Amino acid sequence: MKTVEEIRAAIEASVPGAGVEVVPNPSVSGQHSLRLSPDCAVAVAMFLRDDAELRLDFLSNVTGVDWPDKEIAEKVKVMRWVTKTVDSIEQPVEEIVEETRKRVVQGCLEAVYHLYSVEKKHGPVVIRMRTANRTDEVELPSLTPVWRSAEFQEREIFDLYGIVFKGHPDLRRLLMWEAFKDHPMRRDYVEPDDFEWEPTAHDEVLRRAAERKNREQGIGNRE
Amino acid sequence: MTVAENKTERLDGWNRPPVMEPDGEGELLEVAMGPHHPSTHGVFRMDVALDGERVIRLRPVFGYLHRNHEKLAEGMSYLASMPFTDRLDYICPITNNWAYALAVEKLTGQEVPERAEYLRVILGELTRFQNHASSVGFLIQEMGASGTPLMYAFREREKILDLFEELTGARMMVNYMRFGGCRVDATPAWLDHARKVVAGLPGFVDEFERLLTGNEILMARCQGVGILKPELAVNAGVTGPMLRASGVNYDIRKVDGYGIYNRFNFRVPLGDHWDVYDRFMIRLLEMRESISILEQALKDIPGGPVMDPKAKIRGFRPKPGEAYGRIEAPKGELGFYLISDGGPNPYRYRVRPPSLINLTILEDMCLGQNVADVVLIFGSVDIVLGEVDR
User: In angstroms, rounded to a whole number, what is the distance separating the alpha carbons of residues B218 and B275?
Assistant: First the structure.
């Protein structure tokens, strides 16, 4: 079995400009992965499946991961003019002040694929793809035409994470119902309080209903 | 193995089910089989379009038992989701425990004592035996043999569940494995009891085979029905007895040799007609191989602890990273994918459910068959809805 570095080199040799990155895995499992750029993903997948040495003909597991926007607080030292009383005269003085600045790192949605070879009996080779952001650019190419086993699993990711797989033959929700709006596996998903009718609503249910009412009155009905 | 022939297949949709047109004049009949159909083992629906008796389209509909197991597990510590894994495939809870423990052990690098490995193999193979026995029983039940063969299977399953109860305190929701070992040790009396039960199993399989294998009705209903070609099976990620019935030699016990499976002598039965009857036979043959593994394991089991006393099973924080661990569960490849961000809870917890992925090719197998055979083909896939919907 080739190492990830060797696989990366083989991909670069056969699909020029594939833009494959090695993502090291610091855990003891040692399952390092390859990050594909969405543009060349299908070509790379075909290569991985059909290459005589790799023959990764069996796609075992497909899953999504949500990486929300992260706010990073950094301490920065800045020069500032401060008015101070020096020698009993008020005058501006230059001083170094420490300031906390916040920076937002753009989040993304990720799809992870675990590949094995039934013919050569090796694996896993882990490949992953990232969307541009979590809101409007959530498209990734579907690998279902290459490996049929992605069919239901990509539908599940579309359902629970909201990644839109371009080229999927039948992209519908898998587990939630058609009219459902949100994506429950996202980290920032807030569960609604009114899915189930309770004959004698109490405590938690009442509290959440009141919260919802306030919310709706505050910002108007969001529907 | 004929997969290599398809090496040059490109993206021409060879792995899609064909679009079938109705022939003849009559109207198309659309039937919703389920969600409360007696043959679906739970709440599952198949939207079937029928041209006379012939199936020309089939759409499986999931989600009736969805409770977002993955989200629940992401909100609790690693150990706290162990009892929840029992509820995935509730026919074989031990193998679910095992797959999860294996994934966490890969993530943290914990070692498992030898006695615990043997106990895992013993319980895992007992689970495989009772799963195959009851799944064959269910298949025959769906064929119309109401009750009798299923009760034969359940009589044997009962003995194995008694063993589980004696060891773990529960018949089904066992919650037995821990990261780096097992929860309780087996007493010598339990091992003797297990040996006695295992000694009775070959007789049961013989009896089962005498009752079923050569049965004319069973052969007429099963042979040549629901054929699944090996190249499609591999491409569609089908695993377990389904894949081996299609003639592909792929058993994770042999390939990965996880735990201590490479110490045991056992064979991997393969089918060569790829139909429902092969899937039925493969399960019977695998039961015999399980008995052989059980005999070897019960003979060789060493003494010692079942858990490293210094191992931390509660409140640990794995280093950031990820791991995918998989085992050969009775229904196919059961995998757990975990991402740790260094916290006490998994950042991402994913179950790779063999039952769901084995259903990918349900439509391909059913197209062109009679509607009565759909029930049979579906039964031969062997699914549990707790795992399909999670």
Answer: 13
Residue-wise pLDDT for B179-230, tens only, equals 888 889 899 999 999 999 999 999 999 988 888 888 888 888 888 888 898 9
Three-state helix/strand/coil letters over B228-282:
CCHHHHHHCCCCCHHHHHCCCCCCHHHHCCCCCHHHCCCCCCCCCCCCHHHHHHH
Range(s) of the domain holding residue B141: 69-389
CATH superfamily entry for domain A4-67+110-166? NADH:ubiquinone oxidoreductase Nqo5 subunit (3.30.460.80)
What is the nearest CA distance from B274 to chain A, expressed in angstroms?
Answer: 17
Question: Does A26 reach chain B within 8 Å, measured CB to CB?
Answer: yes
Instruction: Work out the pLDDT band at B11, boundaries 50, 70, 90.
Output: low
CB pair distance less than 8 Å for B357 and A27: no
Q: Please report, for residues A22, A169, B329, the alpha-carbon distance to residue A143 in angstroms, rounded to integers and kept in the order given.
A: 20, 10, 26
Q: Which CATH number belongs to the domain containing residue B310 in this structure?
A: 1.10.645.10
What are the structure tokens assigned to A45, written together? 């997948």
Distance from CA of A67 to the nearest CA of B (A): 10
Give the residue on B whose Cα is nearest the Cα of A63.
B350
Across the interface, whether the CB atoms of B324 and A29 are under 8 A apart is answered: yes
- Does residue B1 lie in a domain region? no
Asked if A108 reaches chain B (Cβ–Cβ under 8 Å), the answer is no
Contact yes or no for B357 and A169 at CB 8 A: no
